[in-house]
Amino acid sequence: MSDSAHPLLPPATPLLHADGGAVQVGGVDSTDGLLLDPVPGLPNLIRALDGRRSQRAVRAQAARDGLDPGLVDTALEALRGTGLLTDLDPADLLATGAGPAAAARARVELPSAVRVPGSAVWRTRALSSVVVEGATRVGTPLAAVLAASGVGRVVVHDSGVVRAGDAVVGGLTAGDEGRPRSMAAADAVRRASPLTDLRPLPPGALPDLVVLTRPWAASDPVALRGTGSGAHLVATVRGETGVVGPLVVRGATSCLLCADLHRRDADARWPRLAAQLVAAEAPPSGSTLTCLLTALLAAGQALAYLDDAGAPLTLGATVELRPPDLLPRVRRWPAHPSCGCGAGAGDDGGDPAPPGGEAPEQGTMGS
What we know:
Strand order of the largest sheet: 7-6-8-9-10-11-12
CATH architecture of the largest domain: 3-Layer(aba) Sandwich
Helix content: 25-40%
């Protein structure tokens, strides 16, 4: 590993005293661990790996403390081999908020966020912007989770007023009833991450991702116009079922209109039914557990997209969380040949496979 690597041992990683003065790092529950021979001063050096110093600086400090730098290098490489050590990119450190409180929050988030050395994931998140359309029982906790996970700008759009049923853990509160939803949602995000930018985007600027959280926004042409030309993700509860996806990247994946056209193919009445679904604001729905699981799953998909950490599961697909077990069920939504989104441009013109590989049923399909 390069001397410029910035090693971080997550603060919660156990350092346990074993027989004969040896120290066990990790190795409890389901994680791998490492047993270190008894070397005076080595446990303290390992515990102090906060990611803010390069390996070169760590080695230099070890030499000043009387430790063999070669032994330190060997220990660090062994910790990396067991997956206990995270190497931070210097750009991630620069993107960490100033002050001890911000640094403490970052130390908790960084180990899971920084998966690929040199990728500067935390910095990428800090420069990203997400617009959440709807301060719903899914939308507000989702916005708070994204902010706490390092997304630099999170904007929640909602012109309504908080109702008693909108309150949910991590989102709007019972005390918010009667307040403008956008203001109450901003307070929820601020509670989770005080340094997040909550300001609307400048005119003409597009967010990196738009999340549609109203139950049937995917069928609402007015809502879809608000996504501009950027990527967008559905994350909502319909009735009692949580729905995440599809994640739409224009021209590369099937779009929300593709899904609507598949619905029309399955039931010719669908356009008339969809118009009724979006004619008025839907009442709050979904249990607390369903809403929070939906918000967390959506946050994971959003971060996977922003981090460019491989293809998110919801590209061209939806994940449904149905009570009572809330186990995820995936439905695939191929590009529709009648849609002009361009995702099916390379198809051979044949009939697409039915979504989910099964005959679609009205009322249970994705978006």
